[in-house]
Amino acid sequence: MELDVVELSRLQFAMTAMYHFLFVPLTLGLSIIVAIMETVYVMTGRPIWRQMTKFWGTLFGINFVLGVATGITMEFQFGMNWAYYSHYVGDIFGAPLAIEGLMAFFLEATFVGLFFFGWDKLTRLQHLVVAWLVAIGSNFSALWILIANGWMQHPVGAEFNPDTMRMEMTSFFDVLFNEVAQAKFVHTVSAGYVTASFFVLGVSAWYLLKGRHIELAKRSITIAASFGLAASLSVVLLGDESGYAASHTQRMKLAAIEAMWETHDAPAPFTVVGFPDQEARETHFAVEIPWVMGLIGTRSLTEEIPGINELVAQSEENIRRGIIAYDALMTIQAERENTPEVARTVFEETKEDLGYGFLLLRYLDDPREATDAQIVKAAWDTVPTVWPLFWAFRIMVGLGVMFIAVMGFFFYRSSFKGQSYPRWALWAAVAIIPTPWIAAEMGWFVAEYGRQPWTVEGILPTAMSASHLSVADLLITLTGFIAFYTVLFIIEMGLMLKYIRKGPYLDVAETEAWQARHEHRLRTHDGRGPFAPAGASAASALDTPPNATPAE
Length: 552
Hints:
Layout: H1 5-20, H2 24-44, H3 47-80, H4 83-117, H5 124-153, E1 158-161, E2 166-169, H6 172-176, H7 179-210, H8 214-249, H9 251-257, E3 270-277, E4 282-289, H10 292-298, H11 308-335, H12 341-350, H13 354-358, H14 372-380, H15 386-416, H16 423-431, H17 435-449, E5 454-456, E6 460-461, H18 462-465, H19 471-502, H20 508-524, H21 538-541
Antiparallel strand pairs: 1-2, 3-4, 5-6
């Protein structure tokens, strides 16, 4: 990577965004899980569920604070590092961000305080409403952010004004209900639910292995397995929707993800593994499954998915039309109110390809002076580097399949095996806690890196979007961000581990008293009614005989 302003700005934003997204999915998922636990508490009145709500709520609170801190920094970067982007599309991009702050973030931030400090000041039902408002606010924040991001992937409801040299919104409805934004929202929040489910599952499994907080851990695993299985299945289904949307909104991204160099006869196959070679423009040792990509991308057996080479040829035509649009735009800018009607007519006919003409600004100051060789080179610039996209997508999909299998196993053991779990399964649950974060980061890498060379697909190239900063400025701020975020990450991990080791320390006396009474009822019952024991001991949770030691 060249050490220039654009690439350093991209690196800084990527680092900030991917670090921020370490916190976002856990916030999204834990907010819902905590609200579900409190709902059970209000319905049953059992103190164990209030204790669970407070314990997992504490971990949610730690994560929430770090997520807010990193998210605010990321939004400021639009003005600091991407000033021309903010000027060019601020009318559209700024609207959902403003709504997110006014509607979702204020809602979320206000009720987070009531959630933590209102236990003794609100009734059960009032506090439950607060918990759900925190969850709704968290998910609404994601909605508006993803509407803004979805518009960058598929710009609708806006058009370029040649007099102001800016994009202007023409339909907020189209921006709001952008098919890419909606698909990204449901896919992203489902991924957050999976992340939180695996976090709860892994921590609870660790408690069972250590023989601590058995009742809390078993109930938490049941909630995590049920919620996580539904979320894991939905991630796969909603990911299919994103693939279908990409087939007609971001065809180059889809072709790069599949390393599809040539257009296949319909229906196209899915490449399971292979080794993309960008210089040779082929994929070595490809293993394909017939028809699958055609069904995912087009939901038909007759529609073709264009390959990279065909799309590059189309991009070359777009660039040539973009040059015509650029020439008409320069005439409008020079003549203003005296602009000949023919210039405006030509611009209206070709303005959809103006962004492709801007791709040439990377090589020369005036696209109208471009040679055929430069046009061809700019056309190939529309192809992102294939191999990282190819493998990142497959890592994400492979982990997604694993998530379904793991959650299915724990759901089965929770529902039909008396909440008993083999020790190997519990250790596996602890070991795979990080994997949902890996899958989520891979998904964002595919979404954002696959859009290059565009900041806004087909409209604004990334090379035009950056602020006029020096390399030294960016190196200093990049170093500062890395150092600061590393410290925050250490603090976050330290606090999370501290409170996980500490365990549920609130409402201990009340919970233990209730549990003692409950266990007495179980011991004195004949085992045939609703109080019949179903693996209530630590030994049964570990899938071992009652008299066996944990080591056995």
